[in-house]
Amino acid sequence: MRTRALTAVLLALSVTTLTGCAQSVDPIERLGRKAAQRVHHARTPPTEQPYHRRGRTGHLGQEFLPPVVDRVATRDKVVFLTYDDGAERDPRFVDMVRGLRLPVSVFLTDSVVGPGYGHFARLRSVGATLQNHTLDHAALRGLPYAGQRAEICGQQEKLHARFGLRPRLFRPPYGTYDTTTLRAAADCGITALVLWRAALGPTGLTYAHGAPGLRPGDIIAVDPDESTGPSLRERTTRLLRVVRERGLTVGRLEDYL
Q1: 126: phi > 0 → left, psi -120 to 50 → alpha, else beta; which?
Q2: Which of 154, 171, 237, 240: CA 20 to 30 A from 198?
Q3: What are phi and psi of 207, to 5 degrees?
Q4: 86-100: b or e for each residue (b if 16 or more CB lie within 10 Å)?
């Protein structure tokens, strides 16, 4: 039954992305949520720390900090699409997310978004989730605690003021961080630092580690702001073709973390 459902989703996705029409499809996010129900009851992998709010301690008195993840430990045939910064505001991408009910996570930087928060309100209204990418896109590693906390907590407050939300997930600019980053993130209410195993750039997909090729659980970062190249919608369409060719579909990252 699950195989038939997955096939139906992939076929519908193929037709929709190739034609560019928002046809009626079995929601991709429904498959992701159903798969997530099993993941949430699974044992936490031994290489990942469970998250507790700062101030709670383990058996040895150590402080628990948010885990850093670039992929999700799952056998579900899902990958996760993430987008950074917020400079590129393609209205057709909003239509795509709406038409496919495509679960995407967008990590926003306040100084980059500037006056464009209205675009992301529309994107959120069609199902995208908004997460934290700092106030000013500063490289955090090596900065003092106060500076890192100001960057992370400051963006939490900005997003709360504009959307009434305080994100759980945080992506450090350039993917760089240190233990101070983890402490500051925990104090700002962050439950996980999200990196990526695969990145979509001008030449296609590249991989931070491991064998090339998408595999279940991979977090994919779509490089932002390629103003001289294909639009965000076009790059995402190309990526979805690769996802489909690998026999995968798109899950909602927030259901798995």
Answers
A1: alpha
A2: 154
A3: -130, 135
A4: bebebeebbebbbbb
Q: Which domain holds residue 56?
A: 2-255
d(CA 204, CA 55): 43
Tokens representing residue 119 in the block: 């675009």
Tell me the C-alpha distance between 194 and 80, whole Å: 11
Number of domains in the chain: 1
Q: Is the dihedral of CA 5, 196, 206, 103 positive or negative?
A: positive
Question: 146-176: buried (b, 16+ CB within 10 Å) or exposed (e) per residue?
Answer: eebbbbbbbbbebbeebeeeebbbbbbbebe
Terminal Cα distance for the chain, rounded: 26
Contact of 217 with 188, CB cutoff 8 Å:
no
79, β-bridge pairs:
250
Closest to 173 in 3D by CA, of 73, 66, 103, 86: 86
The SS3 of residue 249 is: strand
Residue-wise pLDDT tens digits, 197-240: 999 988 899 999 999 999 999 999 998 755 667 889 999 999 99
Q: Confirm whether pTM is higher than 0.90.
A: no
204: CATH: 3.20.20.370
Distance CA 237, CA 147 (A): 38
